[in-house]
């Protein structure tokens, strides 16, 4: 499965958003995969779950994050300011 690519600066020096080229119909992702999809580390994702910044579900022995919750997290994130 291809991994998402990270934000990079265009010719004007403005950062493009982190986007995923993955066209995956999965409803939920295990924590490491969910973290990769939005360009953060698994430990950061675990910390966000612990702080209730993103909900997680327990299915069997796996902790998963719903795709719609990942999308909501990214949509609600503040816009990044370009570096001077």
Give a brief rundown of this model.
By secondary structure, this protein is an alpha+beta fold. It is built from 3 helices and 3 strands. 32% of the residues lie in helices and 13% in strands.
Overview of the structural elements:
- The protein is an alpha+beta fold.
- It has a domain at 28-76.
- 32% of the residues lie in helices and 13% in strands.
- It has 3 helices and 3 strands.
- It has a 3-stranded antiparallel sheet with strand order 1-3-2.
- A hairpin with a 2-residue loop joins strand 2 (57-59) and strand 3 (62-66).
- Helix 1 crosses helix 2.
- It is globular, with a radius of gyration of 14 Å.
- The model is unreliable at 1-10 and 14-20 (pLDDT under 50).
Instruction: Report Rg.
Output: 14 Å
Number of strands: 3
* Helix-strand sequence: EHHEEH
Instruction: Give the percentage of residues in beta strands.
Output: 5-15%
Helix content: 25-40%
The number of distinct helices, counting runs of at least 4 residues, comes to 3
Terminal-residue CA separation: 35 Å
Uncertain runs: 1-10, 14-20
Average pLDDT, rounded to a whole number, is: 82
Largest sheet: 3 strands, antiparallel
What would the principal axes of the Cα set say about the shape? globular
> What is the structural class?
alpha+beta
Strand order of the largest sheet: 1-3-2
Question: In terms of topology, how is this protein built?
Answer:
Layout (H helix, E strand, L loop, with lengths): L27 E3 H8 L3 H9 L6 E3 L2 E5 H10 L8
Antiparallel strand pairs: 1-3, 2-3
Helix pairs in contact: 1-2
């Amino acid at each position: 499965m291809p991994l998402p690519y990270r934000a990079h600066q265009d010719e004007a020096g403005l950062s493009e958003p982190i986007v995923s080229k993955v066209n995956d119909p999965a409803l939920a992702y295990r924590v490491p995969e969910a973290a990769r999809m939005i360009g953060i580390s698994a430990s950061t994702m675990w910390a966000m779950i612990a702080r209730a910044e993103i909900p997680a579900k327990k299915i069997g022995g796996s902790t998963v994050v719903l795709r719609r919750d990942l999308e909501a997290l990214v949509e609600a994130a503040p816009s990044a300011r370009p570096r001077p």
